[in-house]
Amino acid sequence: MTDVEGPSNESVKPSNSTSGEGSPSDKESHLTGIYDLVAVLTHKGRSADSGHYVAWVKQESGKWIEYDDDNPIPQREEDITKLSGGGDWHMAYICMYTARAFPV
């Protein structure tokens, strides 16, 4: 669930190059067309008129955290792949990805 291929295989230049000549932000990178899942917003409930929204966010360390109101709870990656919904369980509502790129 963490790798998704997309149609883009183009070269891009970062738009926020604020550092000096020759720095990594000035170099072009090549998009691989592979995306990594970094966050999921879920809805838990039986209808759109009622229920509860929860955010599941992947930290830079690779660990997942479930943010349920003001109660952050560490989660296993295996649990993130089970967010398929149904009845009173969480249904993935919005999935956020980041594109993998490598320097040219």
Automatic annotation (TrEMBL):
An MF annotation (GO) of this entry: proteasome binding
The UniProt record lists the keyword DNA damage: no
EC number(s) recorded for this UniProt protein: 3.4.19.12
Gene3D superfamilies named among the record's database cross-references: Cysteine proteinases
Membrane spanning residue stretches: none
Biased composition, class Polar residues, residue ranges: 8-22
Pfam families: UCH
Enzyme category, top tier: hydrolase
GO biological process: proteasome-mediated ubiquitin-dependent protein catabolic process; protein deubiquitination; regulation of proteasomal protein catabolic process
Family the UniProt entry places it in: Belongs to the peptidase C19 family.
Entry protein name: ubiquitinyl hydrolase 1
Source organism (scientific name): Salix purpurea
